[in-house]
Amino acid sequence: MWRIRLLDHLVQAATWMAGGLLILTIVAVFYYLLAESRYAFTRKFPYGFRIALQSPDSEYRDEVSMDPTASLLATHREGTDELDDAEDATRLPPHEELASMQSLVTATAQTSDPAQLRADELFRDCMRAPKTAEQGERFLLLAFAMPSYTGKTMELAWEPDVAFEPEFAPYEFRLRLLRAPKGISIEPIEINLNQQPRGRITLPVWKAHSQQEWLNGYLFELEARPTTTTTVATLQQFFKPDWAPTILYARFGMLPLLLSTLLITLLAITFATPLGLAAAVYLSEQASPRIREWFKPILEILAAIPTVVLGYFGVVLVAPALQKLFGEALQLTSGRGLLATALMMTVFILPTVISLSEDALRAVPNSLREGAEALGLTLAECVRLILLPAAKSGLIAAVLLAIARVMGETMIVWILSGGTPVMPDFSSPSAALATLVKPTRAIPDTIAIEMGNVEFESPHYGHLFLLGLTLFVLTLFINLLGFAYRKRAQLQF
Amino acid sequence: MMTAAVATPAKTAIRTEGLSVSYNGKPALKSVNIEFYENTVTALIGPSGCGKSTLLRALNRMNDRIPDAVTQGKVFVNGINIYDRGVNLTRLRREVGMVFQKPNPFPMTIFENVALGPRLHYGLRGRALEEVVEDALRKAALWDEVKDDLKKKSGLALSGGQQQRLCIARMLAVQPRILLMDEPCSALDPISTQKIEELIVELGKQYTVIVVTHNLQQAARISQYTGFLMYGELIEWGETRQLFERPQRQETEDYIRGRFG
Ligand SMILES: Nc1ncnc2c1ncn2[C@@H]1O[C@H](COP(=O)(O)OP(=O)(O)O)[C@@H](O)[C@H]1O
Ligand SMILES: [Mg+2]
Asked: Fewest C-beta in 10 Å: which of A254, B15, B178, B198?
């Protein structure tokens, strides 16, 4: 007797331990994701503008960034400080030498205080260390002509540095004229570079006749004024539509990845739900016990196919078929993309949908089927009017659990997505088709691809964890909803 | 105590001829010949497992649901053998309604439970449908209890007795002429049982009612005719009073006097 009781106690203890372990795991995963994603919030927000003084007929009018005389005012060199810059940057040569090279000059200094300007401490470019969202920055810029310049006017032209987009930096950028040269009367100039990221203003010509006179030229200031805190900025940027974490002006907008995950899931569930439901109805209401005996193990085998196999199956069969179908119209180099991924996801999730839906239908008591039949309902009417509504909670639970599984499934997207983050575009039928068939990049494969190469505890690393956290919260929420529906289904009868 | 009066036998509504049913080759009903009259309540009694439900379910071909069941013999409803090929099951079940031992309302509102049949079978909508539903609920003596939240309350939210009357209303709404009831009170409390019994007596005036019961007193209270089954055989059948007071066969006598099971 006592032995049996001991056994009961042991079983109970094991049950509690297993449950506790499960909850502990969830909490631990959540905590870990949260803890590691804090490195996302150590990120800096680099920016850079190219500014050049040009003659009105300059060949670089529309591409300031190509102009060899342009100055780059930027904060993108990780790990440098102002002293390093002074050593690294190229100093402007002496007056005569410079005059032999170019007739219009922009020059910048390490200082941001006009009183500290010194003619022998001027540089073509100024690059400072990247800033957090709270840190402002000021750059000084001198602009003047050489005596040899013959034009009647000159123009200060600016544009964002290559691959920099002002909307990905949480600053308000202003270019303003601090001081015009003596003897030149000109309206005050202040330009908001966020609103006008590229442009040009005409200036009266002013010539410097000696190196010392450089300092008397037009004195501009580029100011970057913080608009928010790093935390807010990081989160704001996280929901922007561009993911390019490794370029100079890194972008951590995960919207394309999230939308891709959602689209793949939507497509896969749209394919799998009707198919799975039909199969489940057939199995639970129509199939003879013998067919069911055959079908169930087949389902289990299908559900047990490793996802890597499904992925390569997709590469070998589905992607080439899609390429054949759409290759010419869309100039595809491979059929990998959203649709290929969604199709294999359908195969991946179908056994689960069928199995769970069949369970849901079987949970409907037989007495309802008898009641329906005694009332003269045909099988189809019984399914439509009685069984599906009665099993609704269980069926919703099945679909929700399937959604959560598709969202988190990594291998299939990794192999089949094509690995290119793009924003879905449904503005026209051809754009929609391209969105569906062309390569994409979702959240799980992004984590899988990038985690291997990322610098440990860098902002990029933190952002990958932020992605993981997003996925985890999404799937956890959907799973919980699914369990709630399952609970409801169990309590119903 | 109410006692059902014996009416002069009316027309036959159902007649079986050599009706046998076996499950997996094991006979559960052996060559039964019985008649059920119009506007009469017939009770089927007998020990548990003797084939009462099997007989009842053979009368509207509910045994078709069971893959292992094999039925032989004939059942005439309005002169047509329902086991003939080409018989329309939907029509048969519109004609022959059924109520089960355990109330089985559908998981939908009270109104929907009752409206489902007539909407499907007769295409009724709107006012006409509501009238049929009200009429069925009134006949099932449920109207007064549910009329206020007809379209709000789920059929599952009713008490057991109310659920059973809802199932009776659901059956009546498709306008059958023959009602099959398989131990309709066995899952209910005494007060609900009494209500259903009164209802059966009332329905017996307009319908051919066949009630399976294992409760002899109940059979005596509600029926004009009774059939007694044992081991799958119809031992005897006839007017209830006669069967209870002057049984023809020893088995019947033993069973009624409580000398059996
Ligand atoms: N679905 C079935 N499969 C196999 N045997 C059954 C089935 N239903 C009933 N039986 C058997 O048929 C016999 C008669 O059952 P039933 O008609 O339910 O009896 P009753 O309703 O009088 O208690 C019993 O021996 C029972 O075990
Ligand atoms: Mg029975």
From this structure: B198
- Short-list A226, A227, A205, CA closest to A217: A205
Contacts of B119 in chain A (CB under 8 A): none
A443-451 vs A459-492: helix crossing angle, rounded to 10: 140
Give a yes or no: residue A473 inside a domain.
yes
Mutate to test the interface with A, among B53, B120, B154, B182 (most CBs of A within 10 A): B120
Q: Is A474 helix (H, G, I), strand (E, B) or coil?
A: helix
Over chain A (493 residues), the average pLDDT of each successive run of 10 is 81 91 92 95 94 93 91 79 58 91 93 92 90 94 95 94 92 96 92 95 95 95 96 95 92 96 97 96 91 89 93 94 85 88 96 94 93 94 93 94 95 94 92 91 95 93 96 94 86 71
Q: Are residues A425 and A467 in the same domain?
A: yes
* pTM of the shown model: 0.85
Q: Which residues contact A309 (CB under 8 A, 6 or more apart)?
A: none
- All domains in chain B, ordered by first residue: 12-256 (3.40.50.300)
Question: Cα(A122)–Cα(A126) distance, rounded to whole angstroms?
Answer: 9
Q: What is the pLDDT of residues B106-144, one digit of tens each?
A: 999 999 999 999 999 999 999 999 999 999 999 888 999
Q: Verify that A285 and A338 share a domain, yes or no.
A: yes
- What is the DSSP secondary-structure string of A322-386? HHHHHHHHHT-S-S-SHHHHHHHHHHHHHHHHHHHHHHHHHTS-HHHHHHHHHTT--HHHIIIII
Task: For residue B213, give both structure tokens.
Answer: 């019961």
- The reply to whether A185 touches chain B by the CB within 8 Å rule is no
pLDDT at B163 over 50: yes
Domain, as residue range, for A446: 254-492
CATH number of domain containing A469: 1.10.3720.10
Looking at chain A, how many residues does it have? Answer: 493
Mutate to test the pocket of ligand 1, among B24, B54, B56, B186 (most ligand atoms within 8 A of CB): B54
A327 and A455 belong to one structural domain: yes
Could you say which of A198, A230, A262 is where a domain stops?
Answer: A230
Largest CA distance in chain B: 57
Residues A225 and A270 placed together within one structural domain of the fold: no
Which positions in chain B touch A374 (Cβ < 8 Å)? 60, 62, 93, 97-98, 100, 171
DSSP string, B99-125: E-SS----SSBHHHHHHHHHHHHH---
Q: Which residue from B40, B47, B32 is spatially nearest to B215, judged by alpha carbons? A: B47
Cα B86 to Cα A380, B83, B168: the distances in Å are 19, 9, 28
- B134 with B159: CB under 8 angstroms? no
